[in-house]
Amino acid sequence: MKGLVYDGPRSVSVQNVPDARIERPTDVLVKITTTNICGSDLHMYEGRTDMETGRVLGHENMGEVIEVGGAVDRVRVGDLVCLPFNISCGFCRNCEKGLTAYCLTTPVDPKMAGAAYGFAGMGPYAGGQAEFLRVPYGDSNCLVLPEEAREKQTDYVMLSDIFPTGWHCTELAGVRPGETVVIYGAGPVGLMAALSATLKSAAKVMVVDRHPDRLALAEQIGAIAIDDSKASPIDQVNEQTNGLGADRGCECVGYQAHDPQGHEHPNLTLNNLVQSVKFTGTIGVVGVFIPQDPGSPDPLYKKDGEIAFDYGMYWFKGQSMGTGQANVKAYNRQLCNLIQLGKAKPSWIVSHELPLSQAPQGYEHFDKRDDGWTKVVLHPGS
Ligand code: NAD
Ligand code: ZN
Predict the structure, then answer these.
(1) Rounded to whole angstroms, how far apart are CA atoms 162 and 344?
(2) E strands along the chain, which residues?
(3) Which end of the chain is less enclosed by CB atoms within 10 A, N or C?
(4) Distance between CA atoms of 273 and 148, rounded to whole angstroms?
(5) Which residues contact 350 (CB under 8 A, 6 or more apart)?
(6) Domain 162-323: which CATH number of 3.30.9.10, 3.40.50.720, 3.40.140.10, 1.20.120.420
(7) Nearest to 347 by CA among 182, 177, 221
(8) CATH class label, 2-161+328-379
(9) How far apart are CA 126 and CA 222, in angstroms?
(10) Helices (runs of H) and strands (runs of E) counted in the chain
(11) Which uninterrupted H or E stretch holds 191?
(12) Residue of minimum CA distance from atom 3 in ligand 1
């Protein structure tokens, strides 16, 4: 089958790779119809991770079930399914509490929790930017979609990651109706956090970035765009909140953040959040911060393998913070309902739909944050 493989930093290509197949009786085999490029893929693409070459990328997947293993009894051939990016067993201590991002069964390393498709350090699983995908524990890891999803794949595919992740960020931040919320990052994840805060009836949603096309998408759903290339985002948020700071903050950038002056400040967003959120406010962090080895040559990151977080100011302000990967499955049913009932249309951020053969160009443009390249959706069958 054809799959998009990692060849090395800033190099991916579509190759013939071994066919995905049923390997265990609990597996489901899916023919991928829609699969996205994610900001998280850029951690591998930009060479920030120890990704082995030749591996198929892609963790935002949906498609049609074409085969099920002998021990699968809920999912059926022909079902259209969306696949949470977390690969989880459904029965370990963490999964039984809904914490599927921290599954104890699916990582191969016993010191790890959580696994994902096509991701460095998250298990050996192949990604779905390919014609077919093996889904372990298929009964647990397939969200069976309503029939209308066949015609609205660019909405429903967002259930695999970024819509639940944006929602998770607002859950970690504790967003409630009538509150003010500041979101750092107007990439796909930040825009989904803005959508989620809006769905939760936040009174004022502010989104910080510097790309006009992305900020315009935030404005389309009623958020206030804060352009940090024009003035300090902290000052702008304070102006918008009568000097108090926002009630809640969301970090949707991660360790690849750049500061507006072009310096590399991976921790900048965390410290900006502490400064932009009120005393006793709450911050949710879904932007990825991967532990780094001291002395790692990664130029985009840290000093001595650590980030310089201003803990003193965070403590002084009496704030609290929630972090980590989204437990996608825990939110999928309710977010699927919001799409089906017309209350959420996450496809508003989709800028490009490409065949798999053009995925390398999609990566290149998305990685450069080229104007208008907000979210790239791939269709392997087309
Ligand atoms: P993206 O890179 O397209 O978006 C990031 C945005 O942040 C860009 O628009 C960029 O201009 C902006 N930005 C950079 N520096 C900034 C700064 N200092 N202040 C404000 N904005 C700044 O990526 P994305 O797809 O939106 O993903 C964002 C992050 O979320 C990544 O780290 C990704 O790995 C992570 N993520 C986490 C989860 C999870 O489960 N926790 C899931 C998916 C993605
Ligand atoms: Zn993703």
Answers:
(1) 13
(2) 2-8, 11-16, 28-36, 60-68, 80-83, 132-135, 143-144, 180-184, 204-209, 224-227, 246-251, 277-285, 320-323, 352-355, 376-379
(3) C
(4) 39
(5) 154, 374, 375, 377
(6) 3.40.50.720
(7) 221
(8) alpha beta
(9) 38
(10) 11, 15
(11) helix 188-199
(12) 187
Q: Do domains 2-161+328-379 and 162-323 have the same CATH topology?
A: no
- What pTM does this model have? 0.96
**How far does the centroid of ligand 2 lie from the alpha carbon of residue 183, in Å?**
18
**Residue nearest atom 42 of ligand 1, based on CA coordinates:** 165
DSSP string, 130-172: BSEEEETTHHHH-EEPPGGGGT-HHHHGGGGTHHHHHHHHHHH
Bridge partners, 5 (sequence order): 13, 56
Of 155, 160, 216, 214, whose CA–CA distance to 190 is shortest?
Answer: 214
What DSSP designation does 88 have?
Answer: -
Distance 59 CA to ligand 2 centre (A): 6
Would the pLDDT of 262 be above 70? no
d(CA 184, CA 251): 5
For 65-82, how does the pLDDT look when each residue is reduced to its tens digit (9 = 90+)? 999 999 999 999 999 999
| Interval between CA 61 and ligand 2 midpoint (Å) | 9
Looking only at the bridges linking them, the beta strands covering 60-68 and 28-36 are antiparallel
At residue 45 the predicted structure's pLDDT band, cuts being 50, 70 and 90, is very high
Give the integer Cα–Cα distance in Å for 170 and 168. Answer: 5
Check pocket membership of 374 for ligand 1, CB cut-off 6 A: no
Residue found by looking up tokens 């996608």 in the block: 328
Give domain limits for the chain. 2-161+328-379, 162-323
Q: Is the pLDDT of residue 299 over 60?
A: no
What are the two backbone dihedrals, phi and then psi, of residue 110, each rounded to the nearest 5 degrees?
-65, -15
Alpha carbon 234 to chain centroid distance?
25
Q: Is the CB of 194 under 6 A from ligand 1?
A: no
d(CA 28, CA 323): 31
d(CA 130, CA 4): 6
Distance 187 CA to ligand 2 centre (A): 11
